[in-house]
Design goal:
Blueprint (H helix, E strand, L loop, with lengths): L3 E9 L5 E10 L4 E5 L6 H9 L6 E6 L2 E2 L10 E4 L11 H11 L4 H15 L14 H14 L4 E5 L7 H18 L2 E6 L2 H7 L2 E6 L2 E6 L1 H6 L4 H6 L6 E10 L2 E6 L2 E4 L2 H6 L10 E6 L4 E3 L10 E13 L3 E8 L7 H7 L16 E8 L9 E7 L4 E3 L16
Parallel strand pairs: 3-8, 3-9, 6-7, 7-8
Antiparallel strand pairs: 1-2, 1-4, 4-5, 9-10, 11-12, 11-14, 12-13, 14-20, 15-19, 16-17, 16-19, 17-18
Bound molecules: adenosine-5'-triphosphate (ATP) and magnesium ion.
The site of magnesium ion has 2 residues, from helix 1.
């Protein structure tokens, strides 16, 4: 096992595309690091540079205590798992698992032991004599993982390994991957464009955009305190709601005003977000996560900081335990380049409503006890402790520690 460090790594492809731009990233020994971002942001390029499948144009990559810039892939002691499993079709599962070890001239008993261990770990024991064509997609992906595991490498590098599987299988493979990582503790770099996968798998998650690192942190911290509009809009599903708003302070205290609503801003928020008070009297971009709403009728207790927001439900999406309530507010949609970039990805089927230019579509995620129906008037409550504020010009999160002094 080993740490992986990227120092100011660049990749410029022939033709001048800067796919990765000054990337600094430290992946700790044993850590599960996820690289996430929209299509074309440079995730695969970054991973392939770590693997040695792609030359680096600038900077330095260190695996363990070796600078590997000029080391060929086979000498880097890493194992890669791809989206297309790339199994040998004419070989049985057992032969597929053993193949790489045979090439390395490992002894037969050692090969047998490693193959059996991996097969047991992955629940592949009963399939060892089958060929890939006789396996399901999930089973094939397990074999592909098995081939990486038997090598006992210093690190696993995985590029969207689950994206060919159907949704249900993806969830169960995600759980298996988590268990596997618990068990083996091997440093893993995992690429996905799926932010849910990123959140559930990563010890930490690195968000990339156009080859530039936006933020790297634990899933919870990315969710709770995104550094800018892009990360705020990209992480979390349904996506964060945005609107232009004005921050005001009068006899009633501080509040944020938008679309005819006025939400008080708690004092604690000003304490947590240094510099926010300088925006009083100015326009900001306000962000509210769908999960920070609740139906006033089914909200448990009346917690301090919850404020009522009457809306009219346009569309309701019933998810069993929760309901997504889509409603419009009387404010033009935020058209910041960062919110647009974040929204243009992900495979969530966005519900599209015909909107006139002066209304924005928002989502509230409420408890299924709500029984709200489309067309109904509804009182939502919103947790004002979790409001997010962004600078209109820079798109940076106001009061985020990474942005203070910028
Ligand atoms: N061999 C290449 N030559 C030139 N440009 C390339 C090459 N490979 C990738 N690119 C460009 O580099 C950028 C990053 O590509 P990359 O494959 O790393 O993105 P990605 O984040 O993995 O995207 P996806 O989610 O679609 O897999 C893109 O703009 C892509 O068009
Ligand atoms: Mg890719």
């Amino acid at each position: 096992m080993a740490s992986i460090v990227l120092n100011n790594v660049d990749k410029i492809y022939a033709g001048g595309v800067k796919a990765v731009n000054g990337l600094n990233l430290e992946i700790k020994d044993g850590e599960f690091m996820v690289l996430v971002g929209p299509s074309g942001c440079g995730k695969s390029t970054a991973l392939r540079m770590i693997a040695g499948l792609e030359d680096i144009s600038g900077g330095e990559i260190v695996i363990g205590d070796r600078v590997v810039n000029h080391l060929p892939p086979k000498d880097r002691d890493i194992a890669m798992v791809f989206q297309n499993y790339a199994l040998y079709p004419h070989m049985t599962v057992e032969e597929n698992l053993a193949f790489g070890l045979k090439l390395r001239k490992m002894s037969k008993p050692e090969i047998q032991k490693r193959v059996n261990d991996a097969a047991r770990m992955l629940g592949l024991e009963q399939y060892l004599k089958r060929k890939p064509a006789a396996l399901s997609g999930g089973q094939r992906q397990r074999v592909a993982m098995g081939r990486a595991i038997v090598r006992e490498p210093q690190a696993f590098l995985m590029d969207e390994p689950l994206s060919n599987l159907d949704a249900k299988l993806r969830v169960s493979m995600r759980a298996s991957l988590n268990q596997l990582h618990e068990r083996l503790g091997v440093t893993t770099v995992y690429v996905t464009h799926d932010q849910v996968e990123a959140m559930t798998l990563g010890d930490r998650v690195c968000v990339l955009r156009d080859g530039v690192l936006q933020q790297v942190d634990t899933p919870q911290n990315l969710f709770d305190s995104p550094v800018n509009l892009f990360v705020a809009g990209f992480m979390g599903s349904p996506a964060m709601n945005f609107t232009y708003a004005e921050l005001v302070r009068d006899n009633g205290g501080a509040a944020v005003a938008f679309a005819g609503y006025r939400l008080p801003v708690p004092d604690s928020t000003f304490a947590e977000k240094p510099g926010l008070d300088r925006y009083i009297g100015r326009k900001i971009i306000l962000g509210i996560r769908p999960s920070d709403f609740e139906d006033a009728g089914s909200a448990s207790g009346n917690s301090a900081g919850w404020v009522r927001v009457p809306v009219r439900a346009n569309v309701t999406e019933e998810l069993g335990s929760e309901i997504n309530v889509l409603f419009t507010i009387d404010a033009p949609p935020v058209e910041h380049k960062d919110t647009v970039a974040a929204a243009h990805d992900g495979d969530d089927e966005e519900t599209t409503l015909p909107l006139t230019g002066d209304k924005s579509l928002w989502t509230a995620r409420v408890n299924a006890r709500s029984h709200v129906r489309p067309g109904q008037e509804l009182e939502l409550v919103v947790d004002t402790h979790n409001l997010h504020f962004f600078d209109v010009d820079s798109g940076l999160s106001i009061g985020h520690e990474a942005n203070i002094g910028r």
